[in-house]
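Give me the fold.
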Amino acid sequence: MALVESLQKAIDYMETHLFDTMTIEDIAKQANVSSFHFQRIFMILTDMSVGEYLRKRRLTLAAQELSSTDSKIIDLAFKYGYDTPESFSRAFRKQHGITPSEARKGIGKLQSYNRMVIQVNLKGAEPMNYRIVKRSAFKAVGIKREFQCWDEIGIPGVPEFWEEVNSNRESTKLLQLNDGQIKGLLGICSNFNLENNTVDYWIAAEHSGEKSDGFSTFHFPAAKWAVFEAKGPVPDAILATTKQIYSEWFPSNGYEPAKVASIEAYIDINPYREDSYNEIWVAIE
């Protein structure tokens, strides 16, 4: 349960510093995991991004203060991290459905997002097939693109990114470069930016040579990996297995995620088949 306790420590840190400027690195450090893994685990377990949680909590407290004090709206806007009263009012209305002025007058209802407490149910009903692999440093080559962070079904825009890479035959070129231990095409997330709520997503292939045909290079350090089977059509099988890894497997084992980007390995040439076989590689310590 060390992972759950670490996540709660990070949430407590966010609550203590709600009015301060925080980076994803500051928050992830409290959980002793990389910013990559913290953002992803948080999203998997809570169905919202870190930035979304902070925004909802701040606007919840702003609504309470509007209703119970005579503080000026402009002062509250600056206090809760908004550059102008107009941007504060837009965000306030988006969450609560009413303007700050209406909230002050008691017109309409307010939405309260309460302080979060992480609770994980260790069901263990579905068996998980995995293996442990020790690997020296290796690299992958591919195409990188920046996206907004996760929504409840994944990273918006990534399915279209895959369609583009497949249609222009860049995926075929990557497969031809694949000469590594991990077969198929790889999906890799890295470089989270809390302020902009963005993440880099790579479509890549493991490659040991120097020639990369113009693709960019992603380096993985030496690490121990837990490799999980993800059986079934994508993306559902990948998302379900990922959620099971962080909500069940980690809390039930003595491992924690290492500060290394995880890998979605799309091995099956037809990943949409009902019995499609693919893998998720998670570095552990």
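The domain at 130-284 is CATH 3.20.80.10 (Multidrug-efflux Transporter 1 Regulator Bmrr; Chain A).
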